[in-house]
Amino acid sequence: MDYAARYDNWQNLPQVFFEKAAERGDAPLFWAKRYESWQSTSWAQAREEVTALARGLRAAGVARGDRVLLVSENRPEWGIADLAIMAAGAITVPAYTTNTVDDHIHLISDCDPKAAIVSSEALAIRLLPAIRSTGTVGTVVTIDGASGKSDNIAIINWRDMVRDGDSMDIDIEAELGQIARTDTSCLIYTSGTGGAPKGVMLSHGAILYNCTGAYHLFNDAGMLDLDREAFLSFLPLSHSYEHTAGLHFPLTIGAEIYYAEGVDKLAANMGEVHPTIMTAVPRLYESMHQRIVSGVERKGGLSEKLFNKAVALGIKRYEKGASGLSLIEKIQDRALEKLVRAKVAQRFGGRLKAFVSGGAPLNYDVGVFFLALGVRLLQGYGQTETAPVVSANPPHKIKIDTVGPALPGVDVKIAEDGEILIRGELTMQGYWNAPELTAEALRDGWVHTGDIGLLDEDGYIKITDRKKDIIVNSGGDNVSPQRVEGILVFEPEFSQAMVYGDKRPHLVAVLVPDDAFMAAWAQENDRKADLAELSDSEKFHARLRAAVDRANARLSTIEQVRRFIVAEADFNTENGLMTPSLKIRRHEIRKIYGERLEALYGRKRG
């Protein structure tokens, strides 16, 4: 059977795993750093644990269609738990590790889970009070903690449940045929940026459809080496993006999955595990761009000149094609492949076939910077409501200012008001317990994304803004905040930005200084690298003003930021990055800084 046909024949996600595990046997699947060395879990070991844990959940009273809450950082047990829950016929409900007690109360009250799996005591401290408050969860499986009992809640250690499950006479694999492709596999809760978090119901088929599209994206370009790919995972698995692209897609192609130790060690981990494919959000690429440029500037001399020449020629080649380079430039460009671009490739592990960017708009200048250095960067697009991937740039024809064409079989159309509408097997089944919200977002089979965009002559999707985020100034001009914010954070002085100005004469902004820039500036000026202290410094403010002016030079008059304030705290979330479902929470930032932003309109420029 042609491998692509397997995607159509697969009925559910655990079936994929068990089938691939039978083929891969003792080959490594999951990798995690323990005791300063990478330790693997083989496909066969994972298969045994998934089977035993699924039996244990059944014995704990988890029945077909029940929800099971999963609260854990990225680790092998996360994937094993997800697969075991589904193999038991239940529905996985991933929760963010940053959740407060109140956040957990909302989720538990909304989806009424029968059981919960939590990794550590630190996360259990916020989960257990919520469980006690709601009184619906009877069993908690703790990966690292001990078995016991707490206020009528049975707490079972992971190893104990696996051991007990081993001895149970339940043929989990034989029962997989009862799980239909149309059954709900998971509830992924939105971040709540537009109100209370909503549980997005995704079928097994929706996620498999995404995996099919990803398979064709890479395989049709001749880039996929089945059973030999290596993924480095660091985005939270509680988000739909990583759940599909970083876990289930790798499983369908028999890949190895390494779990990064954290953002601070990501560069070192890439050098250790030599990944072939990585998925990330734009904030990572912005951060990488800033670190690379800063490092080159510090080195200076011939190295800086060669690097800058490689970037300049690479950008020219991308924007004008190979014919746009003169004969001398073509010779120089080829020489720079070894002198510069080969060294950049080694920095990313030496085997990287592609970075995939999603979750938020990628700044054009950041994207073309990496392409100029020979790093294949594929910008894609999607939403939790579409499981999540809708489109991606194909490797053979990258248009970095777009999010690529829709994946095969995905219908896309642009509504009269410019809103992007999506239809296909990838669409959600609805929001859990929210029929009115479902009816608003899912109409006649089309997901109304809330994103504004267009289709170019090649059918590539270009996102211009969020429907609700467009700023209409007092002159009636429409301003795209995402475009302005993207250009602001391209400046090395800033890590994040939010602009403000609806019904006002011009834009103002909240800015978060970049940590590395702030530390370097403080050292140069004999100051303490403390944001609260530096924000009162006129000299520091003047440096930020200069960066804003540089950004303004690339913006039209109505887009330019006239005044700004410095944020008192970084708005980064999990893993120190903007994650797909946790973009800048505009309504929260407006609530915190609204009065100060309004006050800027009564001040002089600065």
Index terms:
606 residues; Rossmann fold; GMP Synthetase, Chain A, domain 3; five-stranded antiparallel sheet
- The residue fraction in helices comes out at 40-55%
Overall 3D form? globular
Structural class, by secondary structure, is alpha/beta
Mean pLDDT: 91
Strand order of the largest sheet: 4-3-5-6-8-7
Sheet with the most strands, sense and barrel status: 6 strands, mixed
Give the strand content: 15-25%
Question: How many discrete structural domains?
Answer: 3
Separation of the first and last Cα atoms: 66 Å
The CATH top-level class label of the largest domain: Alpha Beta
* Number of strand segments: 27
User: pLDDT under 50 segments (min length 5)?
Assistant: 572-584
CATH structural fold name of the largest domain: Rossmann fold
Q: What is the alpha-carbon Rg in Å?
A: 25 Å
Number of helices: 20
Please name the fourth-level CATH homologous superfamily of the largest domain. Answer: ANL, N-terminal domain
Q: Based on the structure given, which CATH architecture of the largest domain is correct?
A: 3-Layer(aba) Sandwich
In short:
With 606 residues, the chain is α/β, with parallel strands linked by helices. It is 41% helix and 21% strand. It folds into 3 domains: 3-189 and 225-276, Rossmann fold, CATH 3.40.50.12780; 280-350 and 353-466, ANL, N-terminal domain (Rossmann fold, 3-Layer(aba) Sandwich); 471-600, ANL, C-terminal domain (GMP Synthetase, Chain A, domain 3, 2-Layer Sandwich), CATH 3.30.300.30.
